[in-house]
Amino acid sequence: MNDLQIASRAFRTALLASERRRILGVTAFLLIFAIAIIARVLVFSSHMSPWGAVFLLVVVAYELWILHKVGRALETGQDLSDWLLWFNILAEVAVPVLGVAYFSSPLLAVDYRAVATPWVLALFPLIMLSVLRLNPLVSRVLGFIAACGFLASACYLGWRLNLQELRAHTAAETAVIFYAAVLLASGFIAGMVSSEVRSHVEAALHEAEVERQLKQVEHDLEIARSIQQSLLPRIRPTVNGLEISGWNLPADATGGDYFDWTPLRDGRVVVTLADVTGHGIGPALLASLCRAYARSSFDIHADVGHAMQHINRFFGEDLPAGKFATFVAAVCSTEEAKVELLSAGHGPLFVYSSAQDTFAQFGAQAIPLGLLPELNSAEPIVLHLDEGDMVVLATDGFFEWEDASGEQFGLERLEHAVRKARHLAPEEIIAELYHAVRDFAAGTKQMDDLTAVVIKRVPLAA
């Protein structure tokens, strides 16, 4: 269903609801008018025709039937035919017109009867209530028909317009023309009001539809976020002598960063981290695609270089123009706490030496994934970690986060935060790093996704 269909249905529902209120108003007015006629006849011995009250009660019964039809249409979501709505409102204006002609008090002078009878007053509330039809044309047509009907009733009662001797007309005779003009003008004024009310109703419906669509988008994004977060590993990998932990926080509901780890067939564990350009739902989909290619590639290829070539070839075919991803893989084994690092455009890679209390930074060995069909990477970096040594992989969302003055958190502060927490477990080190960057930012908005992985050398289990 497109936006136009939704808007049309919503406006049709609003139109029927407004019509129901209009009919309720007309019914209440006609009922009060009938009661007033009965009271005048019984209490004040008025010579108004009591058949006028009977006629009004019949019309009230008809209005209640129409009210039922409108209520059913609202409940079932069906439409009422336009001809029925037009007939109903024209029938309503015919009621006071017939009242002027047939139910006026016979004691009123013929010249004054059309303008002195209370029936003529009933035309004005009906024109006023036509505003609730939310159709300016209806109000204008109603004003025109009310004016013409009133003139026809006056003619039926004996009023005549003499165009040759205009000055010879009495006050009562000229009052008929005046009343007709006021009725006509009332219809056009009601049309102006109806047009204004309609524009406000349409604006409100449009705003409600936009809000509904935004809530739907938020709902869809929340589902996408939960799916993306569920793809992140929840159980730390088991590598004797190494503790590994990762963490991710997208800037939006979804992001283009991810981390993962998966065991290889020879017992080693490969840890991966990627950063697709941009953040949001598009990069999130590409990040999930990259994760799938990485898992399948490392399952087929034991060599990290060959696996990266495989990822680049197939992932690059699926990337839109102008998109790429930085990617780093760390293959961990218990043998001498060995870690092989190979980066495609991701850097710097941080390696902390516990014995020297220093950091070494390594750049990428290849270009980012998806830029060229062939990766042409250098040899991977091979590390043998001593107790307390760490490999820290982090996306640029950490060190590029700016404070209010525009200064970035930077690499030095990142190293300082990790060094300060070096005695903690990997997940606690990441938490301290996040707290450090948040304290530095001092309330500025997170503009990029945050993802970090810490691989720490610990004593071998007995």
Fold and architecture overview:
- The chain is α+β, with helices and mostly antiparallel strands and 462 residues long.
- It folds into two domains: 3-214; 234-457, PPM-type phosphatase domain (Phosphatase 2c, domain 1, 4-Layer Sandwich), CATH 3.60.40.
- It has twelve helices and ten strands.
- It has helices spanning 3-43, 51-76, 82-102, 110-116, 123-129, 136-156, 171-231, 281-300, 304-318, 396-399, 410-420, 426-441; strands at 242-249, 257-263, 269-276, 325-333, 338-344, 349-353, 358-362, 381-384, 390-394, 450-457.
- The strands form two sheets. It has a five-stranded antiparallel beta sheet. Strands 2-3-4-5-8 form a five-stranded antiparallel beta sheet, with helices on one face.
- Helix 4 runs parallel beside helix 7 (171-231) and helix 6 (136-156) packs antiparallel against helix 7 (171-231).
- The two termini are 64 Å apart.
- Mean pLDDT is 89; it is low at 1-7.
- It comes from Terriglobus roseus.
- Pfam families: SpoIIE.
- The chain crosses the membrane at residues 23-45, 51-71, 83-104, 116-134, 141-159, 171-193.
- Residues 239-457 form the PPM-type phosphatase domain.
- Keywords: Hydrolase, Membrane, Transmembrane, Transmembrane helix.
Topology (elements, then pairings):
Elements: H1 3-43, H2 51-76, H3 82-102, H4 110-116, H5 123-129, H6 136-156, H7 171-231, E1 242-249, E2 257-263, E3 269-276, H8 281-300, H9 304-318, E4 325-333, E5 338-344, E6 349-353, E7 358-362, E8 381-384, E9 390-394, H10 396-399, H11 410-420, H12 426-441, E10 450-457
Antiparallel strand pairs: 1-10, 2-3, 3-4, 4-5, 5-8, 6-7, 6-9, 9-10
Helix pairs in contact: 1-2, 1-7, 2-3, 3-6, 4-7, 5-7, 6-7, 8-9, 11-12
